[in-house]
Structure prediction request, 893 residues.
Amino acid sequence: MSTSTGDSRLDADVQLLTRLLYETVEHHDSAEVVTLMQDVERWASAAHTSGSASDNGRITAALSAIDPDRSAKLARAFTVYFHLVNVAEQVHRLDESALHDGASLADTMSAVRAAGLDTDDLAWTVEQVEVRPVFTAHPTEASRRSVLTKVRQIADLLEERADPRAQPADRARGERRLAEVIERLWQTDELRVDRPRPIEEARSALFYLEELADQVLPDVVDELAAGLGELGVELSPTAVPVRLGSWVGGDRDGNPLVTPAVTEEVLLHQTRTALRMLERNLQALQVEMSESSRVVAASADLLALTEGAETEEPYRAALQTILDRLGATSARLLDGQQGERSYADADELVADLAVIHRSLLDHRGELTARGPVARVMRTVSLIGFHLAVLDIREHAAHHHTTLARLYELVGQDPAYDTLGPQERTALLARELAEPRPLLSPTTRLEDVPARTMETFHTVRRALDRDPGAIESYIVSMSEDVDDVLAAAVLARQAGLVDLQAGVARIGFVPLLETPTSLAIAGDFLDRLLSCAPYRELVRLRGDSQEVMLGYSDSSKLGGITVSRWGLHRAQRELVEVARTHGVSLVMFHGRGGSVGRGGGPTHEAIVAQPAGTVSGRIKFTEQGEVISDKYLVRSLAHHNMELSLAATLRAATLRREAQNTIEVRRRWDSLMEVISEASHAAYLDLVGDEAFPEYFRQSTPVDELADLNLGSRPARRGGGGRLEDLRAIPWVFGWTQSRQLLPGWFGVGSGLAAAIDAGYGDQLEEAVHRWRFLRMFLSNVEMTLSKTDLAISRRYVEQLVEPPLQRFFGSVTEEHARTVQHLLAITGKDALLSDEPVLRRTFAVRHSRLHAVHELQISLLQRTRSGQSADPELRRALLLTMNGIAAGLRNTG
Prediction:
């Protein structure tokens, strides 16, 4: 399909949805709201274009005269418009994706065939592949699930409308259904009344996880199996190249609401969903399996699985046995009823299905065996009895607090909390190797120690029920080896680790998320794996070690350049260290939605990883609005999962070794060191000023963010007022709302300028064209610069920021100009996104309406900060503008 054809269809859908929205608003409120919407849009556009004091004064005066109720309706109208445009673009994005060649599974298979890989080597590599998107409850989704479900309905109706078989009557009926949904959308409150509880966040995650597991991933893996088959490789029906993960109910770092009881409840919800899904799949398979013993024979093992049932349809009888055992499993897992017929784990269920699979293969039923039976086997292998593998995350300080109390109770001298990292490491290594208990049945703990130990006991109980429910325990803010050993020692107290007995039921994952920890990543892992008791634990876990890399905090603390370069360099070091110790390394990328928090196209990010770092298994977080953007529309969910799987397979097979010489890599490394150092200095010069946090608060709506009730987690660690205490999400959220977007680009221009001044100009041009890392980094920066609008930002600064603090905006403006200038010069473009017509169109269609919502937000911020904050309608209108801008930019933080 040509670009122009796709645009015309998209334009037609946008015009239809806009007309239906205007008709809905006029009918349910008044034509005045629509007229006001159009007037404000026109005034804001004129003010933005001219920049004149008179135009700015007119929009300011006009908006300040609008009462809170009409302000709220105006903000809602713009927000719904953005939702409608977004969903239209999502539906048509597959048309656009045809413009990006080389990324699909089919393209990857062609590349693998062209590379002439050995079939056995390819088969082994494919067996190692596991892509795991991990769904989090990070609070960056501004839209309620009630809104998202209606948006999903609109997407389905638009896809039906695009069906070439549709008749005029079908399209007319579709238009009526669209009008009905838009009416309900207009009458749905966009704002959450209360902050969501973790269990409500879990239900939202289940909304996507169940859809992916049931409707999307089986087809994606089926396509992979077909492609491999053409290369002479058979994908095992138990292979799981894609597995789902979750943090919802397990991420307790800084969130006191995620208690052990919440973790138990979330796991119960996941189990119930998984069992219901498996029952549905098995029942559907039973309906299909009508093979008769009068027509075709069956194996003795298959007949044994029927448990003596007198029938001429043995496969259906065997499946009834499996369904009966699954029912007993449900009774055990959900109601605590023990029974001999219950499956101990999902592997036993797969083993029964394998009997059916082998019997069919042995009796001329190959297509059925490799088709519906293999698909159900893969579904069972994918979801087990838990749907998604739950990670547990806790801050390192909590483990040390707990150990300090335990050692105090056993009379440790010197006191644990007086020891340094090296002394702790030595003590904890001895503790891990010895059978000495630090807890007795009579030990009574309180506060942090009590909650921390109960978490480990909760994990043990969960694994007793379902051994696959939890795999990883992530230690936030890991700065030294003692941080990881502390968690392992506490896990030993709960029976999760016992080296003498050969028990290591969970793995421990250091989260490296600060510039300091990333800089010593290789040394950190080397010392960790050199600790003999810990190395034994890793051996018991299959010689596999997972390391999580944090994008958000490293970017907030050091700037985007030092963060991305530090992450890239850390991965290289980690791979080399793991290889030296004979350990398989799993990288877990903690990427946010925005570029400032590690966002960007996932498939491009995977391929751009350092050569050799994607050995087959890779994890990455999916957060907030990224989840709905990528997975709300089923066809788009399929497309995104396919791209991630294809990119991982490509990286694991075709990018095992560096494609450039050592000399070239060293030259580029020297270039990046210059860029990173200068960029870091520029960033710290800005944010390191003691007055800068106040500029941030005044020039953005970050202080008002808490009222938006995005998620259950507090915006700050420990409630402090320092920049270090502020979480990365509100940091990015605030800059995004005011269109400064500093976390995604600030300092890059200074870095590029320093490299050019140091004589690296030619090397920079070479690296941009030949080095995936630098090319993707600058591409993401360019995307952020395209969303940055300093004309709008200036309005926030002039209207909201005290004059002495406005000097910071001068620094922002200078660095922005510097960054745009050098980026365009290096890439050879005459304008940002000049080679991305689809993205330019995306921004253009929102341009004038976004200006209007920004002006409305500025006006409302002025009024609330001038003493009118007690007016609930005024605050409601302000919060609605936050939702509107988030929807318009398709990004919060």
